[in-house]
């Protein structure tokens, strides 16, 4: 059975694809603009070079003034350096000289030489021939505007990604809050619905117990256990949504009690064992009613995975001074690696008639109400699975 929540992964995938398309379109369009602006700047520098070439052989002073004012001075954005054939600097334009060297000619020349090396990496210099056969070189690089425009789409994508990430977390938080409200409402309503028939059952149990005909009747004792069990279940549902009381409990004893109750109500072909490597009086902070529920859900899932035949080993391990691990290992079918992350999702189940809520509820109880952890420690297809519960001491 595929959980409903898996459909949301498809929605996320669609959103990611749309975001990638928008990003690719933004980068493509910006690159087109950058290419056009780069061509325009290159034409401007070529015009600057032609103006210089014309000034060398200008027939009159009027033309030189025109070239100087209308062509050479029109370039106010593209950094340009004019050199002789030996790359000795003759002039520069639109170069931002650092203030700390503005009054030091040697430092300025050294700085401009460094700028020439950067310009060589971007563009080939433009050759300006002289009448005597010598040449000048015009070195240039992208304007500040063009450089900023090249990086603009990537900055834009980073901003959009950050916004999308924040929106995702906000959406996830609101979704979890909504799910919590649904869980709490369902649990409270279930506890309310169980209350009335449970009260009636308790009254009938006390009535039958007082009847001499049923004195020393074994079935009466089992009936009493089931009635008390219903009380515990009602209490569990009532605790969902409210802060449960955590007490220092003997974790070995509590675990053994939960297993003893289960053993009489599942297949006798399933063997249980509880082991511990520490002193039997070690305690952990748990709510017994909810902890029993977790053990019950995990073990029932294990019994289903083993098809009612196999063994379940529970091992209690100390994890330093502050926590205890409860490892529940079965000899069932195991979980494929591709599904390990999905087993705790509400609605995920491999059973035809399952609701897929047992492990989801167990994880919520441990993670949210006990401030612990529940996860798949180990699993191998055909060999079994180990669930680990981490509790605080």
Short synopsis of the structure:
The chain crosses the membrane at residues 12-34, 151-171. The protein is α+β, with helices and mostly antiparallel strands and 393 residues long. 54% of the residues lie in helices and 18% in strands.
Walkthrough of the structure:
The structure is a single chain. This protein is of the alpha+beta class. The chain is built from eight helices and eleven strands. The protein has helices spanning 6-56, 61-70, 105-122, 144-210, 218-239, 251-263, 288-305, 358-369; strands at 80-84, 89-93, 126-129, 135-140, 247-250, 270-276, 283-286, 310-319, 323-330, 373-380, 384-392. The protein has a five-stranded mixed β-sheet with strand order 6-8-9-11-10. Strands 2-1-4-3 form a four-stranded antiparallel β-sheet. Strand 1 (80-84) and strand 2 (89-93) form a beta hairpin. The two termini are 38 Å apart. The model is unreliable at 1-5 (pLDDT under 50).
Would you spell out the secondary-structure blueprint of this structure?
Blueprint: H1 6-56, H2 61-70, E1 80-84, E2 89-93, H3 105-122, E3 126-129, E4 135-140, H4 144-210, H5 218-239, E5 247-250, H6 251-263, E6 270-276, E7 283-286, H7 288-305, E8 310-319, E9 323-330, H8 358-369, E10 373-380, E11 384-392
Parallel strand pairs: 6-8
Antiparallel strand pairs: 1-2, 1-4, 3-4, 5-7, 8-9, 9-11, 10-11
């Amino acid at each position: 059975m595929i959980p409903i929540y898996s459909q949301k992964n498809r929605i996320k995938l669609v959103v990611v694809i749309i975001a990638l398309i928008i990003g690719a379109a933004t980068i493509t369009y910006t690159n087109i603009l950058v290419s056009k602006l780069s061509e325009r700047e290159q034409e401007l520098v070529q015009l600057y070079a032609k103006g210089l070439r014309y000034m060398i052989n200008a027939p009159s002073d009027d033309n030189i003034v025109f070239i100087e004012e209308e062509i050479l001075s029109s370039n106010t954005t593209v950094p340009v350096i004019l050199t002789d054939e030996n790359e000795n600097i003759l002039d520069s334009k639109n170069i931002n000289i650092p203030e700390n060297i503005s009054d030091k000619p040697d430092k300025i020349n050294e700085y401009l030489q460094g700028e020439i090396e950067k310009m060589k990496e971007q563009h080939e210099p433009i050759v300006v021939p002289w009448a005597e056969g010598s040449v000048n070189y015009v070195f240039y690089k992208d304007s500040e505007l063009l450089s900023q425009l090249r990086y603009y789409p990537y900055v834009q994508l980073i901003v959009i990604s950050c916004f999308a990430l924040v929106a995702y977390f906000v959406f996830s938080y609101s979704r979890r809050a909504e799910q919590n409200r649904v869980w709490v409402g369902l649990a409270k309503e279930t506890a309310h619905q169980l209350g009335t028939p449970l009260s009636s059952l308790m009254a009938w149990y006390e009535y039958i117990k007082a009847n001499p005909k049923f004195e020393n009747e074994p079935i009466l004792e089992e009936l009493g256990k089931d009635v008390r069990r219903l009380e515990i279940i009602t209490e569990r549902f009532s605790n969902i949504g409210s802060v449960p009381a955590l007490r220092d409990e003997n974790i070995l004893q509590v675990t053994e009690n939960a297993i003893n109750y289960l053993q009489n109500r599942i297949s006798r072909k399933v063997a249980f064992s509880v082991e511990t490597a520490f002193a039997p009086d070690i305690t952990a902070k748990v709510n017994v009613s909810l902890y029993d529920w977790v053990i019950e859900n995990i073990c029932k899932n294990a019994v289903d995975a083993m098809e009612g035949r196999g063994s379940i080993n529970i091992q209690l391990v100390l994890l330093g001074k502050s926590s205890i691990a409860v490892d529940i290992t079965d000899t069932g079918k195991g979980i494929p690696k591709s599904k390990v992350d999905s087993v705790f999702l509400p609605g995920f189940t491999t059973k035809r008639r399952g609701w897929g809520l047992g492990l989801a509820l167990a994880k919520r109880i441990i993670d949210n109400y006990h401030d612990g952890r529940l996860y798949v420690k180990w699993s191998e297809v055909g060999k079994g699975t180990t669930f680990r519960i981490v509790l605080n001491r």
